[in-house]
Amino acid sequence: MSVQPHPQDLVINRLINAPAATLFRCWTEPALLTQWFVPKPWTIASAEVDVRVGGGSQIVMCDPQGNQYPNAGVYLEVVPNRKLVFTDAYTAGWLPSAKPFMTAIIEFETEGDQTRYTATVRHWSEETRKQHEAMGFHTGWGMSTDQLEALAATL
Q: pLDDT tens digit string along 5-45?
C-alpha cells in the first residue's frame, strides 16, 4: 500500500502498537488531534476537520510564546482506517492557497496486532523539502508520532 518515494518526500515510517482504526481516529477527531499533533511544548489552539474528499481542515498551531500559526488544507483522499491524503495547496471549496507547501499521505497498514504507520510529506519543490527538513521535520514529526502512539495506547 505504501506510496512510491519521490525525491521531494520526507517520510516517517514506524510500527505502532495500536490498531489502525485507533490511529485513524487520532487523525480525524479534533478532540484527539489536539492532544498529539505538534511536538510539545507546542500546542494546538483549535482543530476543525471535515474528513471527506474536498472537505477542509483548519488547524491552528501555537508556539510556547503563544504565537498562533493557522494551517488550512483540503482532503484529497479518505479511506477509513487505511489512508488520508491532504494538502495545503487548496483550502475548503477548492480555493487555491497563497503558498502551497506540501501534500501529506498518511497510511495505516495492519501488521498482526500492530499498525505500520507511514507519513509521507511530499513537497512542491526541492527547496521546500530542504526547508522543511532544516526546520526539524524528522525530530518534530518523530516526537508527534511518539505522542500519537502514547495517546492511542490510552484509547
A: 788 999 999 999 999 999 999 999 999 999 999 999 999 99
* Position 138, amino acid: H
Contact 57, 48 (CB under 8 A): yes
Task: Give yes or no for a contact between 63 and 57, defined as CB atoms under 8 angstroms apart.
Answer: no
| C-alpha to C-alpha distance for 94 and 16, rounded to whole angstroms | 33
The span from the CA of 73 to the CA of 27, in Å, is 14
The secondary structure element, H or E, covering residue 148 is helix 137-153
Q: Between the CA of residue 32 and those of 7, 29, 36, 94, 154, what are the distances in Å?
A: 32, 5, 7, 26, 11
